[in-house]
Amino acid sequence: LETVHTVAALRGLLARARREGKEVGLVPTMGALHRGHLSLVALARRGDDVVVASIFVNPAQFGPNEDLTRYPRTRAEDVALLQGAGVDVLFMPSVAEVYPRGFATRVEVGPIGTVLEGKTRPGHFGGVATVVTKLFNMGGPDRAYFGQKDAQQIAVIKQMVRDLDLPVSIVAGPTVREDDGLALSSRNRFLSARERTAATVLSRALQAGRQEAEERGATSEKVRLAMHDVVMAEPLARLDYATVVDAATMDPLDEPRPDALLVIAVVVGSTRLIDNMVLGGV
Ligand code: AMP
After folding, report:
1. What pLDDT digit, counting tens, does each position of 164-202 carry?
2. Cα(145) to centroid(ligand 1), Å
3. Ligand 1 nearest atom to the CA of residue 177, by list position
4. Is the C-alpha dihedral spanning 52, 57, 62, 67 positive or negative?
5. pTM for the whole thing?
6. Which of 27, 61, 110, 175 is deepest in the core (most CB within 10 A)?
Protein backbone atom coordinates (compact mmCIF):
# COMPACT_ATOMS: atom_id res chain seq x y z
CA LEU A 1 0.00 0.00 0.00
CA GLU A 2 1.44 3.31 -1.06
CA THR A 3 0.04 6.35 0.73
CA VAL A 4 0.10 9.71 -1.04
CA HIS A 5 -1.09 13.09 0.19
CA THR A 6 -0.80 15.32 -2.88
CA VAL A 7 -2.48 15.43 -6.27
CA ALA A 8 0.95 15.54 -7.94
CA ALA A 9 2.08 12.32 -6.22
CA LEU A 10 -1.22 10.57 -7.04
CA ARG A 11 -0.97 11.58 -10.70
CA GLY A 12 2.65 10.42 -10.85
CA LEU A 13 1.76 6.96 -9.57
CA LEU A 14 -1.29 6.56 -11.79
CA ALA A 15 0.47 7.86 -14.91
CA ARG A 16 2.97 5.04 -14.48
CA ALA A 17 0.17 2.48 -14.07
CA ARG A 18 -1.60 3.78 -17.15
CA ARG A 19 1.55 3.63 -19.28
CA GLU A 20 1.60 -0.06 -18.37
CA GLY A 21 -1.95 -0.37 -19.71
CA LYS A 22 -3.54 -0.87 -16.28
CA GLU A 23 -7.10 0.14 -15.45
CA VAL A 24 -7.72 2.14 -12.32
CA GLY A 25 -10.61 1.80 -9.84
CA LEU A 26 -11.36 4.46 -7.24
CA VAL A 27 -13.18 3.94 -3.93
CA PRO A 28 -13.86 7.34 -2.32
CA THR A 29 -14.45 7.30 1.45
CA MET A 30 -14.41 9.56 4.48
CA GLY A 31 -12.54 7.00 6.59
CA ALA A 32 -13.79 5.30 9.78
CA LEU A 33 -13.84 2.27 7.56
CA HIS A 34 -16.03 -0.81 8.01
CA ARG A 35 -17.03 -3.89 5.99
CA GLY A 36 -19.25 -1.73 3.77
CA HIS A 37 -16.25 0.20 2.50
CA LEU A 38 -14.22 -2.99 2.20
CA SER A 39 -16.92 -4.61 0.05
CA LEU A 40 -16.42 -1.77 -2.44
CA VAL A 41 -12.67 -2.35 -2.36
CA ALA A 42 -13.32 -6.06 -3.06
CA LEU A 43 -15.47 -5.11 -6.08
CA ALA A 44 -12.73 -2.82 -7.36
CA ARG A 45 -10.14 -5.54 -6.77
CA ARG A 46 -12.12 -7.78 -9.13
CA GLY A 47 -12.79 -5.08 -11.74
CA ASP A 48 -9.55 -3.11 -11.94
CA ASP A 49 -5.78 -3.64 -12.05
CA VAL A 50 -4.96 -0.80 -9.68
CA VAL A 51 -7.21 0.06 -6.73
CA VAL A 52 -7.09 3.54 -5.26
CA ALA A 53 -8.96 4.34 -2.05
CA SER A 54 -9.31 7.90 -0.85
CA ILE A 55 -9.93 9.10 2.67
CA PHE A 56 -11.08 12.69 2.87
CA VAL A 57 -13.61 14.13 5.30
CA ASN A 58 -15.04 16.68 2.90
CA PRO A 59 -16.02 19.90 4.72
CA ALA A 60 -18.04 21.03 1.66
CA GLN A 61 -20.69 18.36 2.20
CA PHE A 62 -21.35 19.15 5.86
CA GLY A 63 -23.83 21.82 6.88
CA PRO A 64 -23.00 24.37 9.60
CA ASN A 65 -24.91 22.40 12.25
CA GLU A 66 -23.70 18.98 11.19
CA ASP A 67 -21.14 16.59 12.64
CA LEU A 68 -17.97 17.59 10.70
CA THR A 69 -15.85 18.11 13.81
CA ARG A 70 -17.11 14.98 15.56
CA TYR A 71 -16.97 12.82 12.41
CA PRO A 72 -15.05 9.70 13.51
CA ARG A 73 -11.38 9.57 12.48
CA THR A 74 -9.65 6.21 12.87
CA ARG A 75 -6.66 6.58 10.54
CA ALA A 76 -4.36 3.82 11.87
CA GLU A 77 -7.13 1.21 11.71
CA ASP A 78 -8.22 2.48 8.29
CA VAL A 79 -4.74 2.05 6.84
CA ALA A 80 -4.46 -1.49 8.24
CA LEU A 81 -7.90 -2.43 6.83
CA LEU A 82 -7.09 -1.06 3.37
CA GLN A 83 -3.75 -2.84 3.35
CA GLY A 84 -5.47 -6.12 4.30
CA ALA A 85 -8.08 -5.61 1.57
CA GLY A 86 -5.43 -5.27 -1.14
CA VAL A 87 -5.67 -1.55 -1.93
CA ASP A 88 -2.68 -0.37 -3.97
CA VAL A 89 -2.81 3.38 -3.39
CA LEU A 90 -4.28 5.34 -0.49
CA PHE A 91 -4.92 9.00 -1.32
CA MET A 92 -5.27 11.05 1.83
CA PRO A 93 -5.14 14.75 0.95
CA SER A 94 -5.36 17.63 3.42
CA VAL A 95 -8.23 20.12 3.25
CA ALA A 96 -5.76 22.71 1.88
CA GLU A 97 -4.72 20.32 -0.91
CA VAL A 98 -8.33 19.87 -2.03
CA TYR A 99 -9.55 23.41 -1.33
CA PRO A 100 -6.55 25.74 -1.61
CA ARG A 101 -6.88 29.41 -0.80
CA GLY A 102 -9.03 31.10 -3.45
CA PHE A 103 -11.03 27.99 -4.29
CA ALA A 104 -14.40 29.17 -5.63
CA THR A 105 -15.91 26.90 -8.31
CA ARG A 106 -18.57 24.38 -7.38
CA VAL A 107 -20.64 21.75 -9.13
CA GLU A 108 -24.34 22.53 -8.93
CA VAL A 109 -26.62 19.51 -8.96
CA GLY A 110 -30.20 19.89 -10.17
CA PRO A 111 -33.51 19.23 -8.39
CA ILE A 112 -32.38 15.72 -7.41
CA GLY A 113 -30.14 17.37 -4.83
CA THR A 114 -32.95 19.24 -3.10
CA VAL A 115 -35.24 16.36 -2.05
CA LEU A 116 -34.95 13.74 0.73
CA GLU A 117 -31.38 14.04 2.09
CA GLY A 118 -30.95 17.30 0.20
CA LYS A 119 -34.01 18.80 1.90
CA THR A 120 -32.70 18.10 5.39
CA ARG A 121 -29.11 18.82 4.35
CA PRO A 122 -29.12 21.84 1.98
CA GLY A 123 -25.91 22.04 -0.05
CA HIS A 124 -24.89 18.50 0.87
CA PHE A 125 -25.06 17.04 -2.63
CA GLY A 126 -23.39 20.07 -4.20
CA GLY A 127 -20.50 19.43 -1.81
CA VAL A 128 -20.46 15.72 -2.68
CA ALA A 129 -20.60 16.41 -6.44
CA THR A 130 -17.81 18.97 -6.20
CA VAL A 131 -15.40 16.72 -4.31
CA VAL A 132 -16.24 13.65 -6.42
CA THR A 133 -15.58 15.65 -9.62
CA LYS A 134 -12.27 16.78 -8.17
CA LEU A 135 -11.33 13.23 -7.17
CA PHE A 136 -12.17 12.02 -10.69
CA ASN A 137 -10.00 14.76 -12.21
CA MET A 138 -7.18 14.14 -9.75
CA GLY A 139 -7.02 10.39 -10.29
CA GLY A 140 -8.68 9.83 -13.66
CA PRO A 141 -10.15 6.44 -12.68
CA ASP A 142 -11.75 4.12 -15.23
CA ARG A 143 -14.33 3.05 -12.67
CA ALA A 144 -15.51 4.51 -9.36
CA TYR A 145 -17.31 2.50 -6.69
CA PHE A 146 -20.12 3.76 -4.45
CA GLY A 147 -22.42 2.01 -1.95
CA GLN A 148 -26.12 1.48 -2.55
CA LYS A 149 -26.48 2.42 1.13
CA ASP A 150 -26.35 6.05 -0.08
CA ALA A 151 -28.83 5.58 -2.93
CA GLN A 152 -29.45 9.26 -3.53
CA GLN A 153 -25.71 9.92 -3.68
CA ILE A 154 -25.43 7.29 -6.43
CA ALA A 155 -28.32 8.86 -8.34
CA VAL A 156 -26.74 12.32 -8.05
CA ILE A 157 -23.33 11.08 -9.21
CA LYS A 158 -24.74 9.09 -12.14
CA GLN A 159 -26.69 12.14 -13.26
CA MET A 160 -23.60 14.33 -12.93
CA VAL A 161 -21.44 11.87 -14.90
CA ARG A 162 -24.06 11.88 -17.68
CA ASP A 163 -24.63 15.63 -17.66
CA LEU A 164 -20.95 16.61 -17.57
CA ASP A 165 -19.64 13.79 -19.80
CA LEU A 166 -17.21 12.60 -17.15
CA PRO A 167 -15.21 9.68 -18.58
CA VAL A 168 -15.74 7.24 -15.70
CA SER A 169 -18.06 4.27 -15.09
CA ILE A 170 -20.00 4.32 -11.85
CA VAL A 171 -20.37 0.95 -10.10
CA ALA A 172 -22.84 0.52 -7.22
CA GLY A 173 -22.11 -2.07 -4.52
CA PRO A 174 -24.86 -3.68 -2.39
CA THR A 175 -25.49 -2.48 1.18
CA VAL A 176 -23.59 -4.47 3.81
CA ARG A 177 -25.59 -5.09 6.98
CA GLU A 178 -25.17 -6.40 10.51
CA ASP A 179 -26.88 -9.73 11.25
CA ASP A 180 -29.92 -7.93 12.68
CA GLY A 181 -30.38 -5.84 9.52
CA LEU A 182 -28.76 -2.55 10.55
CA ALA A 183 -26.84 -1.13 7.58
CA LEU A 184 -23.19 -0.55 8.45
CA SER A 185 -22.36 3.15 8.84
CA SER A 186 -19.51 5.12 10.34
CA ARG A 187 -22.15 6.90 12.42
CA ASN A 188 -23.38 3.68 14.11
CA ARG A 189 -20.56 4.04 16.63
CA PHE A 190 -22.38 7.06 18.10
CA LEU A 191 -25.31 4.86 19.19
CA SER A 192 -25.66 3.84 22.84
CA ALA A 193 -26.55 0.20 23.53
CA ARG A 194 -30.27 1.03 23.73
CA GLU A 195 -30.11 3.19 20.60
CA ARG A 196 -28.21 0.45 18.78
CA THR A 197 -31.10 -1.94 19.47
CA ALA A 198 -33.63 0.70 18.40
CA ALA A 199 -31.67 1.38 15.18
CA THR A 200 -32.96 -1.85 13.63
CA VAL A 201 -36.14 0.18 13.16
CA LEU A 202 -34.91 1.33 9.73
CA SER A 203 -34.51 -2.14 8.23
CA ARG A 204 -37.67 -3.34 10.00
CA ALA A 205 -39.64 -0.47 8.49
CA LEU A 206 -38.23 -1.21 5.03
CA GLN A 207 -39.24 -4.88 5.38
CA ALA A 208 -42.75 -3.86 6.44
CA GLY A 209 -42.91 -1.46 3.50
CA ARG A 210 -41.86 -4.14 1.06
CA GLN A 211 -44.42 -6.58 2.49
CA GLU A 212 -47.15 -3.97 2.02
CA ALA A 213 -45.93 -3.29 -1.54
CA GLU A 214 -46.38 -6.96 -2.38
CA GLU A 215 -50.07 -6.90 -1.36
CA ARG A 216 -52.75 -6.69 -4.06
CA GLY A 217 -53.79 -3.11 -4.72
CA ALA A 218 -50.80 -1.68 -2.91
CA THR A 219 -50.31 2.07 -3.14
CA SER A 220 -47.28 4.09 -2.16
CA GLU A 221 -49.43 5.75 0.51
CA LYS A 222 -50.09 2.37 2.15
CA VAL A 223 -46.40 1.50 1.91
CA ARG A 224 -45.46 4.82 3.52
CA LEU A 225 -47.96 4.21 6.33
CA ALA A 226 -46.58 0.73 6.98
CA MET A 227 -43.06 2.15 7.35
CA HIS A 228 -44.35 5.07 9.43
CA ASP A 229 -46.13 2.72 11.88
CA VAL A 230 -42.97 0.70 12.54
CA VAL A 231 -40.99 3.85 13.35
CA MET A 232 -43.78 5.30 15.54
CA ALA A 233 -43.69 2.12 17.66
CA GLU A 234 -40.04 2.78 18.55
CA PRO A 235 -39.77 5.38 21.33
CA LEU A 236 -36.10 6.26 20.70
CA ALA A 237 -36.70 6.93 16.99
CA ARG A 238 -37.96 10.06 15.23
CA LEU A 239 -38.97 9.71 11.59
CA ASP A 240 -37.54 12.21 9.10
CA TYR A 241 -38.95 10.60 5.95
CA ALA A 242 -40.06 7.19 4.68
CA THR A 243 -41.26 7.11 1.10
CA VAL A 244 -41.36 5.41 -2.31
CA VAL A 245 -39.28 6.95 -5.10
CA ASP A 246 -37.89 6.37 -8.57
CA ALA A 247 -34.34 5.08 -8.01
CA ALA A 248 -32.82 7.21 -10.80
CA THR A 249 -34.57 10.54 -10.23
CA MET A 250 -35.66 10.28 -6.56
CA ASP A 251 -39.10 11.53 -7.68
CA PRO A 252 -41.98 10.29 -5.50
CA LEU A 253 -44.07 7.47 -7.00
CA ASP A 254 -47.81 6.89 -6.54
CA GLU A 255 -47.46 3.18 -7.22
CA PRO A 256 -44.80 0.91 -5.72
CA ARG A 257 -43.39 -0.38 -9.03
CA PRO A 258 -41.09 -3.41 -8.78
CA ASP A 259 -38.07 -1.23 -9.57
CA ALA A 260 -39.05 1.47 -7.06
CA LEU A 261 -36.88 2.35 -4.12
CA LEU A 262 -38.03 2.58 -0.51
CA VAL A 263 -36.00 5.25 1.29
CA ILE A 264 -35.99 6.08 4.98
CA ALA A 265 -34.24 8.50 7.33
CA VAL A 266 -34.64 8.26 11.09
CA VAL A 267 -33.02 10.08 13.99
CA VAL A 268 -32.17 7.59 16.74
CA GLY A 269 -31.19 9.44 19.91
CA SER A 270 -29.13 12.22 18.32
CA THR A 271 -27.80 10.20 15.38
CA ARG A 272 -29.41 10.49 11.98
CA LEU A 273 -29.43 7.21 10.05
CA ILE A 274 -30.53 6.41 6.49
CA ASP A 275 -31.32 3.20 4.66
CA ASN A 276 -33.12 2.04 1.52
CA MET A 277 -34.36 -1.04 -0.29
CA VAL A 278 -35.06 -1.78 -3.95
CA LEU A 279 -38.55 -3.32 -4.01
CA GLY A 280 -37.73 -6.03 -6.53
CA GLY A 281 -34.21 -6.55 -5.18
CA VAL A 282 -32.94 -8.88 -2.49
P1 AMP B 1 -18.51 7.28 3.51
O2 AMP B 1 -17.15 7.00 4.05
O3 AMP B 1 -19.59 7.16 4.53
O4 AMP B 1 -18.58 8.53 2.68
O5 AMP B 1 -18.81 6.09 2.51
C6 AMP B 1 -17.92 5.79 1.47
C7 AMP B 1 -18.57 4.82 0.53
O8 AMP B 1 -18.92 3.63 1.21
C9 AMP B 1 -19.87 5.39 -0.07
O10 AMP B 1 -19.93 5.05 -1.44
C11 AMP B 1 -20.92 4.69 0.73
O12 AMP B 1 -22.13 4.55 0.02
C13 AMP B 1 -20.28 3.34 0.96
N14 AMP B 1 -20.90 2.66 2.10
C15 AMP B 1 -21.16 3.18 3.33
N16 AMP B 1 -21.80 2.29 4.09
C17 AMP B 1 -21.98 1.18 3.34
C18 AMP B 1 -22.59 -0.10 3.55
N19 AMP B 1 -23.16 -0.42 4.72
N20 AMP B 1 -22.58 -0.99 2.53
C21 AMP B 1 -22.02 -0.68 1.34
N22 AMP B 1 -21.42 0.49 1.07
C23 AMP B 1 -21.40 1.42 2.05
Report:
1. 999 999 999 999 999 999 999 999 999 999 999 999 999
2. 9
3. 19
4. positive
5. 0.97
6. 27
